[in-house]
Amino acid sequence: MKRVTNAVKLAVVPPVGYAVIQILRRTMRWHTEGGEHVSRLFAEGRSVILAFWHAQQLMMPLAIPRLEAHVLISQHRDGELIRRIIARFGLDAVRGSSTRGGAEALRRMIRIGRSGGNLALTPDGPKGPRQVAKVGVVQLARATGCPIVPMAFGCSKKNSSRAGTGSSCPIRSLGAPSSWARPSGYRPTRPLTTWSACAGRWKRP
Predict the structure, then answer these.
(1) Can you give the residue ranges of every domain in the chain?
(2) Three-state SS for 51?
(3) What are the φ/ψ torsions at residue 94 (nearest 5 degrees)?
């Protein structure tokens, strides 16, 4: 019975998830900040590493339309659902995480980055700690020479709550370009987070 349930999920959830994301896109007014930095990197022929929090991954397939990228996704069953959803946006998946298949996934990501492919991952991963970046994204950047582009998504509910009360986490990195998309009318309720490299991992100072 469990096998049948999993098969139904794999057949139903990806097309429904894709449709939900597209419906959400059509109900939002989008505003992007910092996109010129990413455009400049692409104009220079650079490949990039897109980094965003695990809790904000839902709308990220729409952050840079028509971008070809390879996304690091866990080998868990939920990861397979995500893989099938992002495939509908033209994105490729590299399977692995810190708990299963991570070393091989990192090696594959390095090969892709060195060959000119764009990479994407959640530096805090599915296991957390939430919004604490692990060292893997830095290792990947060092091994490939690709710049890290921190990204975030924020939104507000029109006419139902005070602007800025939606989920938000704007990011500004030291000495690196930043880019994040948000619907117009959004006002952050807290200062921008600044990241710095400390003792082999990134954390908020």
Answers:
(1) 2-203
(2) strand
(3) -115, 120
